[in-house]
Amino acid sequence: MLDKFQFHPPRLIVCSVAAAVLLAALAVVSPVQLPVLLYKFVQLLLSAYAGYWIDRWLFPYARPDGYLAREWRAHDAVYPDDQADHAVVPGYQLTFASALLRRALIVTGCMLAVCLGL
User: Fold this and answer.
1) CA pair distance 31, 92, nearest whole angstrom
2) Record's InterPro entries (predicted)?
3) Which stretches does DSSP call E strand in 3-111?
4) What is the gyration radius of the CA atoms in the chain, in angstroms?
5) 3-state secondary structure of 62
6) Which of 34, 57, 62, 67 could form a disulfide bond with 96, CB atoms 3.0-4.6 angstroms apart?
7) CB 107 within 8 A of CB 53
8) Percent of the chain with pLDDT strictly greater than 90
9) What pLDDT shows up at residue 83?
10) Beta-carbon-side half-sphere exposure of residue 27 (alpha carbons within 13 Å)
11) Are 86 and 72 in contact (CB under 8 A)?
12) Model pTM?
C-alpha cells in the first residue's frame, strides 16, 4: 500500500544539472548570446509542434494510438512486469511500429528544416 508513496528522484537529473551549468557558463562568458539561445529553443519547440500536427493532418486515420488493444488513458495503474504497459492489437505490431516511425520522421524533418533553414 505504501509503495505508491515512495519518493522517486527525477529522471535525467544529471542532464538537467549539466544544462543549467552550461547555461550559467554561457551567461557569464557571453550574455549577448542568451536571446539567441532562447530564439533557437523556441524554434525547436514550435517546429516539433508543427511536425506533430502535420502528421495528424496528413494521416488522420493512422494515428499510432489507434493500434493499441485498449484506450491507453483508461488503465487501473497496475503494470505487471511480465506484460507490456500498453498492448498492441495482435497482427498490427508492424503497422503500429511503422506509424510511430512515420510520426518521428515527420517531426524530425520539420525540426531539421526549421532549425537549419533559419
Assistant:
1) 52
2) Holin_2-3
3) none
4) 20
5) coil
6) 67
7) no
8) 55
9) 75
10) 7
11) yes
12) 0.74
